[in-house]
UniProtKB/TrEMBL annotation:
Annotated keywords: Folate biosynthesis, Magnesium, Metal-binding, Transferase
A GO molecular function held by the record: dihydropteroate synthase activity
Protein's pathway: Cofactor biosynthesis; tetrahydrofolate biosynthesis; 7,8-dihydrofolate from 2-amino-4-hydroxy-6-hydroxymethyl-7,8-dihydropteridine diphosphate and 4-aminobenzoate: step 1/2
Record-given protein name: dihydropteroate synthase
Length: 266
């Protein structure tokens, strides 16, 4: 899954049409690099980021969904606002990726109809304040697993088919470095007992990689690729990244190794 930010700071400030052409070109590049899903986001959810008004998020995201449909690649929209979910699905989005795990009032109703994919992410607290005080868990892996169990039940009670869901531990969203690496090391254990949902992970350029390597955001590509391999080895089905080409190369090597491991006679 290639990340396509459509926030003003991610584009040359040349107005909506330039932004649209820019986004289309970036999406095409990610497809050429091997991305199989494009995740479009109109609001930065970085720790401390200021929320974007609804009208502004719609104006950023919906024209990009419409413009990218011609690429015939699954389109995901990263939003927690029910009105954006509805508009994105109506415009042809294939998936809604919600950092709030469909907990905002109206979110379940917004996605109930249709058969779009839904990514249920774990977050402790909210983006403005989640990293302001040290996040506390009993057992972070068990707590995330319990959260997933509760959200899956809520979604299914709303009449949403389980086949539409994937789960994401939400790296960096109300977690310390130790929490993030525990959730990577024990990724498969975040799955509620007896279930087998696809797992999505997003560690690309995040602070956990900086904590492990001492590197700044722009220098975390290799660290992110290593994290993606660790996640794939532990059962991740979808890896959400900025740096598609090196990640796809790594996934090809991981897959070739996995395939060879199944062959007993050599
Ligand atoms: C995530 C996300 C993530 C999912 C962001 C960033 C912050 N969606 N949206 N998982 N992170 N599903 O990319 O640094 O980890 S925005």
């Amino acid at each position: 899954m290639g990340i396509l930010n459509v926030t003003p700071d991610s584009f040359s400030d040349g107005g909506r049409f330039l932004a649209r052409d820019d986004a289309l070109r970036r999406a095409e590049d990610m497809l050429a690099d091997g991305a199989e899903i494009i995740d479009i986001g109109g609001e930065s959810t970085r720790p401390g980021a200021v929320p974007v008004p609804l009208d502004e998020e719609l104006a950023r995201v919906i024209p990009i969904v419409e413009a990218l449909r011609q690429l015939n690649v699954p389109l995901s929209v990263d939003t927690y606002k029910p009105a954006v979910m509805r508009a994105a699905l109506a415009a042809g989005a294939d998936m809604i990726n919600d950092i709030w795990g469909f907990r905002q009032p109206g979110a379940l109703d917004a996605v109930r109809e249709g058969n779009g994919g839904l990514c249920v992410m774990h977050m402790l607290g909210e983006p403005q304040t989640m990293q302001a005080v040290e996040p506390v868990y009993g057992d972070v892996v068990a707590d995330v697993r319990a959260f997933f169990g509760e959200r899956v039940a809520a979604l299914m009670n709303a009449g949403i088919a389980r086949e539409r869901l994937c789960l994401d531990p939400g790296y960096g969203f109300g977690k310390t470095e130790a929490h993030n690496f525990a959730l990577l090391a024990h990724l498969a254990d975040t799955m509620p007992a007896g279930t087998n949902f696809p797992l999505l992970v997003g560690m690309s350029r995040k602070s956990m990689l900086g904590a492990a390597t001492g590197r700044k955001k722009a220098e975390r590509v290799a660290a992110g690729v290593a994290a993606a391999v660790c996640a794939a080895e532990r059962g991740a089905a979808i890896v959400r990244v900025h740096d598609v080409a090196p990640t796809v190369d790594a996934m090809k090597v991981w897959k070739a190794t996995k395939d060879a491991a199944r062959v007993r006679h050599h």
